[in-house]
């Protein structure tokens, strides 16, 4: 099989907020650097940063502080975040949002006095979410994309990374193997530094929000390289995904939390407003609590015709709802629902992965030459991501990665030689489906989605998790007996779906194993057989490594490097806040 080759100083895999910021910072640090972006989709048109609705958390206003933002992040994350990473997030978000405004050119919404408008978001003790109406991500990505184009970086669009390649001498990373999806050919790019920024994405669940290009490929590549994935059981479900039926990709997409924040009611199939039976904050409880409430109603059969519950806004006045939530009203109308005046069917939907690759605050990893940033990484959010901390995470650490890689490359004059066996393996594994008869790939992915939803979803117990692991491992085996129907590799979407399902089944097994290993309930992870939080001082992170074909789980004690449970960096937060949505909204 012919492999085209190329060389660059810095290879960035993924072009969301993390990837684009990294490119910008690397070029700012040294305009002479050769920087290459490789992306499964088109630059600026794929990934989830573009989909950000609600906004960006940053402590700017008088009375707010980095310490306060940090404490909200630690408490929201149920004391599982890596505190050095969380601190770096909150501290650098201030610098990054100024950069977004003054250098990148984003126009965010403002107060009448000219200061940035900051809105309330769930689980936060201060209104700190900067936004551009409810389309913040489009503003950020469009402006970033223009800057990155002007900075003259190389672009490999519709190029899928399939394997990170070690150096022949074992000293670190040498490059990455890609598939040029347009032509169906292989391309090896040697790079002095590589950024993994593929954005993870829990798209293995029956209902999910992230963009379809995200199938956990980066996490899969990190496992192959021997890196640990931490806190992978922490999959965040957003309570109100649109339930438009099985035949529309709109099913699972987010109806923003502002609807509940504004006073929307959740009503079951029997017409009862049920959330106060689960929590005193009713619909305004945090997303994990509301997701569990909805799930319980569904499990007990009090459902809508399509199997979810209703969100009802009409009591707030249809005209008011239409004016305040035009995007949401339109989205529902497209699926045949009247949000402003009627009822809309909703269901919890897998939204974000708090877990991911273990990395350091300078974005370096255990593998020399490999850096990681954004949703591919674990550690920043612990057991729960606060709404507004996701895009802050990707842009803060993306920028840091650009700085770190530029400094790293300065000291590293030459490229490493690739390990030939790794190159051969990359191609052999990608070619595998061409050696098998085609099968029901779509059915396999559907089955995976149902198993993850039923057994490794919103509420978990040992029996379900064990069953889920066994079933998913059966799907992984079934995939290896199944191939693709055409040998023509150009724009071969069935082939790419096969590769997607391969990544998704493996990472699904990782999630199930980590969930089985955490015998307590924290944030997004709820074990019906272990409903207690467990002693906060004894908190552990789960870490999973691949050893050959096997996955191995270990538990590592949390290092409370800045603040210990029961303590606070600010006077009025000792003991920590309630899980009530502060007036608000998040995504
Ligand atoms: C609907 C929605 C609304 C959201 N709203 C908010 C919000 O209001 N506030 C907030 O803070 N967060 C929000 N989030 C979360 C936020 O979008 C993410 O946390 C963040 O943008 C992730 O950035 P990233 O750069 O890590 O990944 P992404 O922006 O997702 O980019 C990943 C990139 O990797 C590429 N890629 C994937 N696999 C490969 C491969 N094998 N080879 C090459 N390229 C690959 C993709 O094509 C894409 O370009 C929202 C998410 C969703 C889905």
Determine Rg (CA atoms, Å).
Answer: 23 Å
What is the arithmetic mean of pLDDT?
A: 95
Please indicate the percent range of residues in DSSP E strands (runs of 2 or more). 15-25%
Oligomer: single chain
Bound molecules: flavin-adenine dinucleotide
Number of helical segments with 4 or more residues: 14
Segments where pLDDT lies below 50 for 5+ residues?
574-586
What is the helical fraction, as a range of percent? Answer: 25-40%
| End-to-end C-alpha gap | 44 Å
The general outline is globular
Provide a descriptive summary of the structure in words.
Helix content is 33%, strand content 18%. β18 and β19 (550-557) form a beta hairpin. The chain is an alpha/beta fold. α1 (17-29) packs parallel to α4. It contains 14 helices and 19 strands. The protein has helices at 17-29, 66-76, 83-104, 136-150, 217-224, 258-261, 287-299, 318-324, 326-334, 389-411, 420-431, 441-455, 462-480, 493-517; strands spanning 3-13, 35-38, 56-57, 118-119, 129-130, 154-156, 159-166, 173-180, 185-196, 229-230, 235-242, 265-267, 309-312, 343-353, 356-358, 370-372, 377-378, 540-547, 550-557. Strands 1, 2, 6, 7, 8, 9 and 16 form a seven-stranded mixed β-sheet that branches. The protein binds flavin-adenine dinucleotide. The site of flavin-adenine dinucleotide has 42 residues, from α1, β7 and α10. Flavin-adenine dinucleotide is lined by residues 13-19, 38-41, 46-49, 51-55, 160-161, 197-199, 209-210, 213-214, 217, 254, 352, 374-375, 387-392, 394, 587.
